[in-house]
């Protein structure tokens, strides 16, 4: 089955017009029509309903279009990655979640560029969930995120766990304490900001007698509260961590953030440790299984070196 025929069908199906597809492919309409007819003869199925205007796909054509779309995107990505192997890029595209940028990421990038003076680094703010697609599409070379993924094509390394701290308005009575138990925050409004949730449990609430079970709660902060049997009575959800901290600064509630953010808005916010050692947020480094960017190993060694300098407990990849 010729790639040219698949491309012709895909373009016509996507644009729903032979004339527009002819402009895009720079082929004549008769040539496009012939290629698609040859494709239909190859598989013995009619893909386009030629008796309707505007152009429509048959049911089989719709199914085939969806499959061909995935194949062509995968092929395009493979070609791009193959070209990178032959001609290693001098740019490292890094995807990151905002909370990581407040930690050691700037130092990591600076040290990596010192080791590789000709390397340019481009940063892209992108959620943990979307980093997998961005890696496959070649939009980023590595990603720093907070959530694990289950994808065979992605290499994911757990770098370390970062403790959560409570972010409280300056006037909050608990600022007088140095350490806080989550049960002490139950009566406060908790501001939630995670867009990615933990994997859903296989057990539905109707099948479980304990509706507060952590296994049934995917929102990361609520999951921590549920583990201590201390679900808050009031919550507010916002789109990102900066808005959450803005609301805390305005006295509209409290939230939990990774320790690296405790230098943000310190004029209005007090940060306090939690007594729970397991109240942590993981940091993952993600890349494609094969190939990886030529700078990947250097980046990883820089990360480990900084952790060792600062006495940070981490997990070294095998």
UniProtKB/TrEMBL annotation:
Pfam families: HTH_1 (PF00126), LysR_substrate (PF03466). One of its GO terms (cellular component) is protein-DNA complex. PROSITE patterns: HTH_LYSR. The keyword DNA-binding applies. Keywords: DNA-binding, Transcription, Transcription regulation. One of its GO terms (molecular function) is DNA-binding transcription factor activity. InterPro entries: LysR_HTH_N, LysR_subst-bd, WH-like_DNA-bd_sf, WH_DNA-bd_sf. SUPFAM superfamilies: Periplasmic binding protein-like II, Winged helix' DNA-binding domain. Coiled coil: none annotated. Residues 1-58 form the HTH lysR-type domain. It comes from the Bacteria. Belongs to the LysR transcriptional regulatory family. This is HTH-type transcriptional regulator BenM. It comes from Psychrobacter piechaudii.
């Amino acid at each position: 089955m010729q790639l040219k025929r698949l491309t012709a069908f895909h373009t016509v199906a996507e644009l729903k017009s032979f004339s527009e597809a002819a402009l895009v492919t720079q082929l004549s309409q008769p040539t496009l029509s012939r290629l698609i007819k040859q494709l239909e003869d190859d598989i013995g199925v009619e893909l386009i309903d030629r008796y309707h205007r505007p152009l429509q796909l048959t049911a089989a054509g719709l199914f085939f279009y969806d499959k061909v779309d995935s194949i062509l995107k995968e092929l395009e990505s493979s070609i791009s990655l193959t070209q990178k192997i032959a001609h290693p890029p001098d740019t490292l595209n890094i995807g990151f979640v905002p909370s990581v940028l407040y930690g050691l990421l700037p130092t990591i990038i600076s040290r990596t560029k010192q080791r590789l003076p000709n390397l340019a680094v481009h940063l892209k703010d992108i959620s943990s969930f979307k980093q997998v697609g961005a890696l496959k599409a070649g939009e980023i070379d590595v990603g720093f995120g907070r959530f694990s993924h289950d994808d065979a094509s992605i290499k994911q390394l757990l770098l370390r766990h970062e403790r959560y701290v409570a972010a409280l308005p300056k006037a909050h009575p608990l600022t007088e304490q140095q350490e806080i138990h989550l049960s002490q925050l139950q009566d406060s409004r908790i501001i939630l900001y995670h867009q990615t949730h933990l994997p859903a449990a296989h057990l539905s609430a109707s099948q479980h007698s304990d509706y507060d079970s952590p296994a049934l709660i995917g929102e990361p902060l609520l999951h921590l509260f549920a583990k201590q049997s201390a679900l808050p009575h009031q919550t507010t959800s916002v789109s990102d961590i900066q808005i959450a901290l803005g609301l805390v600064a305005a006295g509209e509630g409290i939230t939990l953030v990774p320790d690296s953010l405790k230098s943000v808005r310190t004029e209005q916010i007090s940060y306090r440790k939690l007594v729970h050692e397991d109240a942590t947020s993981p940091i993952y480094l993600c890349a494609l299984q094969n190939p990886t960017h030529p700078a990947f190993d250097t980046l990883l060694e820089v990360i480990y070196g900084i952790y060792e300098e600062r006495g940070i407990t981490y997990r070294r990849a095998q």
